[in-house]
C-alpha cells in the first residue's frame, strides 16, 4: 500500500520568510515518482515538480527548492523569501509502479498563508 | 489554449437524483482521471481511463459511473447511490497512463440540497 503524509495542516508566515513544507511517503516499490502540486484559490492543481526514486539530487527552481531523502522517505519543499502569491494549498503525491502505475496517491495537503 | 474544461463550476443535487459532471480536454491526452477532494483529506481517485472505451475503478468508485466514448471527453455521473456526494471534483489528464504529470481542470463543487 502507498501512503503520503503531510503533517502540517496549515502554515502561516509573513512575506519574505522562508518556509518548508514536509512530505513523508510509504511504498514497497523500488521504482516510484514523487510530485508536488500547488492549488491556488482558483481550484485547479498546478504541477511543480516530479522526481524519480533513483535521483536523490536536490533541485532548485527560482525561489523553490526540494530535498529528497530516501533514507527518511521524505520529499520536502522549501519556498525562500515567500510572497503573498505563494498562498495556496500544496500537495505532495506518490506514483509507484506495478498495479498502481499511472495513479497518484496524494497527501492531505498543507494550507500555506503568506501575510503581507 | 489547450487545457481541461470542467462544467458546471457549481452543481446542486436533490435527494435521489443523478447528476453528471462534464470534463473535456483538448490536449490530445490518452489518459483521464476523476478525483474527489474533501477538506483535510487530499484527493482520492474515483475512476480513470487509459484509452477510449476503457475505464477502471479507482479507490472510491462506489456510487459513481463514467464513460469514455470520445478521447476528449470523460463525464462523471454521481448516482443516487452515493450517499455523501458533497465535495470538490477534479478532472485530470496525462499523455499516457504512466508516471507523467497530470493536468487538472478547475473543478466542480457539488452540494446536496
Describe how the helices and strands are arranged.
The complex is a heterodimer of chains A (116) and B (113).
Chain A lengths: L2 E3 L4 E5 L4 E3 L2 E3 L5 E8 L6 E7 L6 E3 L2 E6 L4 E6 L8 E9 L8 E2 L3 E6 L1
Parallel strand pairs in A: 2-12
Antiparallel strand pairs in A: 1-4, 3-9, 5-6, 5-10, 7-8, 8-9, 10-11, 10-12
Chain B lengths: L3 E4 L2 E4 L5 E7 L5 E7 L5 E9 L2 E4 L6 E3 L9 E3 L8 E8 L8 E2 L3 E5 L1
Parallel strand pairs in B: 2-11
Antiparallel strand pairs in B: 1-3, 3-8, 4-5, 4-9, 5-6, 7-8, 9-10, 9-11
Tag the structure with descriptive keywords:
heterodimer; A: 116 residues; mainly beta; 6-stranded mixed sheet; 0% helix; 53% strand; globular; B: 113 residues; 7-stranded mixed sheet; 4-stranded antiparallel sheet; 11 strands
**Number of helical segments with 4 or more residues of chain A:** 0
- Low-confidence stretches of chain B are none
Q: What is the tally of helical segments of chain B?
A: 0
Show the largest interface.
Answer: A-B, 25 and 29 residues
SS strand fraction of chain A: over 45%
Order of helices and strands of chain A: EEEEEEEEEEEE
Strand content of chain B: over 45%
Q: What is the end-to-end distance of chain A?
A: 41 Å
Shape estimate of chain A: globular
Helix content of chain B: under 10%
Biggest pleated-sheet summary of chain A: 6 strands, mixed
> Helices and strands of chain B: which structural class?
mainly beta
Rg of chain B = 13 Å
Indicate the mean pLDDT of chain A.
92
Specify the oligomeric state. Answer: heterodimer
Instruction: Report how far apart the termini of chain B are.
Output: 35 Å
Number of strands of chain A: 12
Amino acid at each position: 500500500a502507498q501512503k503520503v503524509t503531510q503533517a502540517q495542516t496549515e502554515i502561516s508566515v509573513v512575506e519574505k520568510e522562508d518556509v518548508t513544507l514536509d512530505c513523508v511517503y510509504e511504498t514497497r516499490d523500488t521504482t516510484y515518482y514523487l510530485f508536488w502540486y500547488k492549488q491556488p484559490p482558483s481550484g485547479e492543481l498546478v504541477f511543480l515538480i516530479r522526481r524519480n526514486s533513483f535521483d536523490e539530487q536536490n533541485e532548485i527552481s527560482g525561489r523553490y527548492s526540494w530535498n529528497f531523502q530516501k533514507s527518511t522517505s521524505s520529499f520536502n519543499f522549501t519556498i525562500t523569501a515567500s510572497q503573498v502569491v505563494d498562498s495556496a494549498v500544496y500537495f505532495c503525491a506518490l506514483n509507484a509502479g506495478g498495479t498502481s502505475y499511472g495513479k497518484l496517491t496524494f497527501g492531505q495537503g498543507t494550507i500555506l498563508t503568506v501575510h503581507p | 489554449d489547450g487545457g481541461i474544461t470542467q462544467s458546471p463550476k457549481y452543481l446542486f443535487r436533490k435527494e435521489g437524483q443523478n447528476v453528471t459532471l462534464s470534463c473535456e480536454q483538448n490536449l490530445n491526452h490518452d489518459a483521464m482521471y476523476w478525483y474527489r477532494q474533501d477538506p483535510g483529506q487530499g484527493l482520492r481517485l474515483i475512476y480513470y481511463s487509459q484509452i477510449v472505451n476503457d475505464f477502471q475503478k479507482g479507490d472510491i468508485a462506489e456510487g459513481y459511473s463514467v464513460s469514455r466514448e470520445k478521447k476528449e471527453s470523460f463525464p462523471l455521473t454521481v448516482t443516487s447511490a452515493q450517499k455523501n456526494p458533497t465535495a470538490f471534483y477534479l478532472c485530470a489528464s496525462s499523455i499516457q497512463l504512466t508516471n507523467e504529470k497530470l493536468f487538472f481542470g478547475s473543478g466542480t463543487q457539488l452540494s446536496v440540497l
